[in-house]
Amino acid sequence: MNDETRVPPGTHFSPTPGCIIMILAVIVLGGSLVYAVYRGIEMNREIDLFTESAPVARPLLSPSAEEKTALRKRLSDFSRAALDGRDAELALSALDLNYLIATEPILRDFRGNTRIREIKPEFIVADISQTLNSLLPGRPRYLNAAFHFKADIQEDGLGLSLIDITAPDKEIPRGFIELYALKRTFRLDPENPAFGPALKKIRLVRTEDGRVIVSTSPPRD
After folding, report:
1. Do 130 and 112 form a contact (C-beta atoms < 8 A)?
2. Residue 119 confidence (pLDDT) above 70
3. Whole-prediction pTM
4. How many domains does one find in the chain?
5. pLDDT of residue 77
6. What is the pLDDT of residues 61-116, one digit of tens each?
7. Is 87 helix (H, G, I), strand (E, B) or coil?
8. What's the Cα-to-Cα distance from 204 to each of 4, 189, 199, 210, 215, rounded to whole Å?
9. Which of 19, 62, 81, 92 is spaced 20 to 30 A from 2 at the CA atom?
10. What confidence category does residue 28 fall into, taking pLDDT thresholds of 50, 70 and 90?
11. Is 99 within the bounds of a domain?
């Protein structure tokens, strides 16, 4: 006698609760994957609406030898005072920041694609040509726009928080801006040996009309 259990002819298969759960999981996960791919394609199309196929050059503003020496002395004096534990304050104009981009090795990645346009009491405006990834290989695209930053003290040092992106004749979705802000690309590394030790001493940063000010003194109530 064969002990193998046979399903009588005409008997329909009844899936067990475990099978049902597995089937539902496949349906849900498969649907989620399809939706994710669909949203990725849709987002890619939306980004195409406010990006361009070529970057906009941001020519460097290079200081004279005297201007470069004077600016570096101000930075050195501030750094020395900060490391000595003394109260110190440093004010930098938009031109100063552009000079630093043009001359400081640690800012070389911003050369040719970033220029500080102006400093307002509420934020800093920088004209930037930012490369964005595309779903199609070999097809670069560029976000040529004005980036609005708020300078602030973050957990890991001094940084710039992105608050807005604007471009002429283009509408950039708020969702994209908020997602892009999470990248936190625009920050100074406190572990950098060139300026990290002094950076960790900064307790206050604020913007005024035409300049950004950093200070080793804590904010006063």
Report:
1. no
2. yes
3. 0.77
4. 1
5. 93
6. 999 999 999 999 999 999 899 889 899 999 999 999 999 999 988 888 899 999 99
7. coil
8. 80, 17, 11, 17, 5
9. 19
10. very low
11. yes
Best CA proximity match to 79, nearest among 196, 159, 218, 213: 196
Cα separation, 91 vs 215, in Å, equals 9
Does 120 fall in a domain? yes
Range of the domain at 192: 65-215
38 domain residue, yes or no: no
Residue 180 belongs to a domain = yes
Considering the chain, what percentage of its residues have pLDDT values greater than 70? 71
What's the burial of 159, exposed, middle or buried (CB within 10 Å: 0-12/13-18/19+)?
buried
Does an H or E element contain 71, and which? helix 65-83
For residue 187, the model assigns a pLDDT of 66
In angstroms and rounded to an integer, the radius of gyration of the C-alpha atoms of the chain is 27
Query: What is the reported pLDDT for 132?
Result: 85
Q: How far apart are the first and last CA of the chain?
A: 93
For residue 81, what are its two tokens?
């005072």
Tokens of 97: 């920041």
Sign of the alpha-carbon torsion through 187, 47, 141, 96: negative
**Using CA atoms, how far apart are residues 221 and 206, in angstroms rounded to an integer?**
15
Q: What pLDDT score does 199 carry?
A: 77
Contact 191, 199 (CB under 8 A): no
CA dihedral 149, 151, 153, 156 (to 10 degrees): 50
Q: Are 217 and 203 in contact (CB under 8 A)?
A: yes
